[in-house]
Amino acid sequence: MIDASLDIPRRLNDPPRMFWWDIDVALLVLGAALASMVAGFFVSGCAVGLLLASAYGRAKAGKHPAFALHLLYWHLPAFMTGLKRTPPSYLRELAG
């Protein structure tokens, strides 16, 4: 018999998860595993992916849920973000 309570999320605003990781942390592990599989170093690449995911998970602990988007905005050039109505990230003076 299947327990129907497992299909209902406990909170509606929970971020998407893969196993026990948030999706952005899981994508780091999967991306490193894929890149290492292509390069021929699968086991060591998975270990590096786990270390990267662990460091990123510690860095984003207790921060805004869109921490990854904030990192991308501040560290990528403006033509890669595609944002038209926001000022460039290198302008760091606040009006007011």
TrEMBL record:
The chain crosses the membrane at residues 25-53. It holds the Pfam family TraL. Keywords: Membrane, Transmembrane, Transmembrane helix. NCBIfam families: TraL_TIGR. This is Type IV conjugative transfer system protein TraL. It comes from Thauera sinica. The lineage of its organism: Bacteria, Pseudomonadati, Pseudomonadota, Betaproteobacteria, Rhodocyclales. The gene is traL.
